[in-house]
Automatic annotation (TrEMBL):
InterPro entries: A-D-PHexomutase_a/b/a-I, A-D-PHexomutase_a/b/a-I/II/III, A-D-PHexomutase_C, A-D-PHexomutase_C_sf, AMG1_II, AMG1_III, PAGM. It catalyses: N-acetyl-alpha-D-glucosamine 1-phosphate = N-acetyl-D-glucosamine 6-phosphate. This is Phosphoacetylglucosamine mutase. The gene is PCM1. Gene3D superfamilies: Alpha-D-Glucose-1,6-Bisphosphate, subunit A, domain 3, Alpha-D-phosphohexomutase, C-terminal domain. It comes from Discina gigas. Residues 181-287, 301-439 form the Phosphoacetylglucosamine mutase AMG1 domain.
Amino acid sequence: MTSQIVEASSRHPKPDRVFSYGTAGFRMKAVLLDAIIFRVGLLAALRSQKLNGKTIGVMITASHNVPEDNGVKLIDPMGEMLEESWEAHAATLANAATDEDVLAIYSHLIVSLKINPSVPARVIFARDTRESGPALVASLVDALTAVGADFTDHGLLTTPQLHYFVRCINTQNPPHTEAYGVATEQGYYEKIGNAYKKLMQGKPKQGTVTVDCANGIGAPKLKGLADFIGKDTLDIKIINDSVDVYSKLNYQCGADFVKTQQRLPPASQVASLARCASLDGDADRIVYYFNDADGIFHLLDGDKIATLAASFITDLVKAVGLADFRIGVIQSAYANGSSTGYITKTLSLPVVCTPTGVKHLHHAATKFDCGVYFEANGHGTVLFSHSAHQIIKSHLPESPAQATALENLRALVDLINETVGDALSDLLLVEVILAHKGWGPKEWDSTYTDLPNRLVRVEVKDRTVFKTTDAERRLLEPTGVQEKIDGLVGKYKQGRSFARASGTEDAVRVYSEAAERGEAEELARLVADIVA
Ligand code: NG1
Ligand code: ZN
């Protein structure tokens, strides 16, 4: 096998660059990715062998990035992101200078990680709709073949669908008593779609929701889900579904466009107060929005989705009669201060702030019976702990009202993709909650008013000198910078601002908020001047 690895590796020459496995895996111009994908294939097989033949997922996508980019991420057995300590192994392998070095590092990992090479490796993979996808899949297959791994190509899937597949496969056998679901697209549509239908029983139709699919993989998959559910319970209009025109992916559309531009995607023609949503290129993010009667745009971002979900689950758990059930909301520093105030003061729920990146939020969410986590940009989900699952499954209701609430809570657990933020599942979650509350987007939006805020990207010489603490809300280094920021922030009513190095781009991001729009913008500008 060793000569096969060297030989196969030689077909995938590495560009003269240094690569790192960041919060989004490896992501860059697709033309640079061939060797990386090959090496990720080797690592996926090792990861599976290390975990005694559990199935590992490999997703080829660059999410909301431009069409010329692509990327790759590994998925661990329960559908979660790759364990952090293995990110370094991914980087070491990706940066090996020669084909012989690739083999040497691969062999060294077997020894240092105490991997039994005779364990069969199992890997499944999928890709988004990018033009570069098929060639990158071929590189991955080359690696998996060279090491004799057992693999399945699932073709085109959304990122969360592949996470779901991985978890389904790995929970099919003991010690698991029940599989997470059936590891097919149909199985995914049935699990989520049936839960949605159950929750919508007896609820009036809410009017059309217009969903912008960013001209990406979300379009055909949302159609599949909507067809399964049927028009009686889901009134949906899909726009930006041109997956065959590669250049249209994420162009003038998608969750990132709407969030950063604060306006409708140009292709969207909707009446005032109509519900709209946008997915990103691999359908793991979603934001809602609407134009009011005066034509003013209102964004219902990840914070608004988290607060909506947390309030609904709190009421449902009470209606079921579950005592001592701990619900918490997890946010990053980018969450709007008003949302944090609303959760703690109005919903009376605890809030935990973690560093940016869903893996941090996800981890913190596991500490609650029910942890609701969303990044402001719309990436998030809801987690139920193992014991919460058991309680919800075995609880005996004491009244017809409790019985109905319990059925709804059980359906809600099925509706949610707990492995990772899933735009399709989150879309239906929001639709269900709005139907239960009898709310349109305006009523939802009026729960609290976002503080005016500004996010700016600052080019710096070396972003690695920016070291943070307190969930990235304060700078430890360069020395003296935080004191200057503090001095400024104190001058603004409800002022808050922080600076941190981006994990995905070569820049520092400055966020600010304040009571007035002009003040938030001024504060961002002044803090940007300090770090520049
Ligand atoms: P960085 O580039 O580290 O700020 C961005 C997003 C994160 C997360 C990651 C992964 C903002 C401010 N940052 O991280 O929330 O989604 O990308 O894609 O939106
Ligand atoms: Zn994405």
